[in-house]
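USER:
Before I trust my own judgement here, I would like a peer's view. Write it directly below this note and I will take it from there.

ASSISTANT:
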Amino acid sequence: MPYSHRRPFMTTRTTTMYFTLFLLLTLIPVSSGADNLKPYILGYNGPGTIDSKLGEVKESLEGAGFDIAGEYAPYDGAHIIVVTSPEQAQDAAQSKFGAYGAIQRVSLTETAGGIQISYTNPLYFASAYRMSGTPAETRAKLEKALGNSGEFGSEKGFSSKELRKYHYMVMMPYFDDHVKLASFSSQEEALSVIEKNLASKKGGSEKIFRVDIPGKDETIIGIGIKSGKGADKAVMGVTDFGELKHTAHLPYELVVSDGVVYMLHGKFRIALDFPDLTMVTFMKISLAPGGIENSLKELTEK
């Protein structure tokens, strides 16, 4: 039954300029709201605990045709299930850097009122990742498995066109401003090095999932970050303060494509999932993007 680079965000020299620009931009509508897409969909918000709901959620997901690629408990009261499907893999194979869209995240978060079950919005992220396919089937399957009590994560939302050129504000990175972490002689060598480092939990990391994209040398690997300036618990403790929880923001990921290892720029990745955060809040995690990059880069060291 369905549920009803190493630099901080800002340098001292540029902080004042960015803050002034931010204040000016807040006077301009961010989105026309044509599609009104938001990053998350609430499936359930009511009584229960992770222990009492987790099995049922996983059964519903598998019954709807999803494969569970991995699970992650980043801190107490939070659990994430990462899923994929043949439809998602096919869409990913047809798109440049499509691996980012090969998975969806489902979260269970305990609150004072019980538990929230939410998931990433396939339409929102497919647009942000500039996918060539249309993930309507994936969204329909998630709604069937988990329900749909409304989208959240942005007050106004964004049109698909806006998401395809999304960045937080002027001079901030876009989707294609990837961070290149390392290059290897082959896809096989890159994956071997990363897997070895993950096995030893190098850089305070934890392997959550791996999905290989069919028909191309491209793989996405989900990474839990347990320590350092970009630690998951620390970042979420600052950013995820709203009533509806953004737990499905986690985990971060690497994409290995033709032997080159990439990550989404932290300033893009965090902003995309928390588009309504103010510059004041971003400043509180100004070291997080560099910390995340440092942790993931360690996984590419021979």
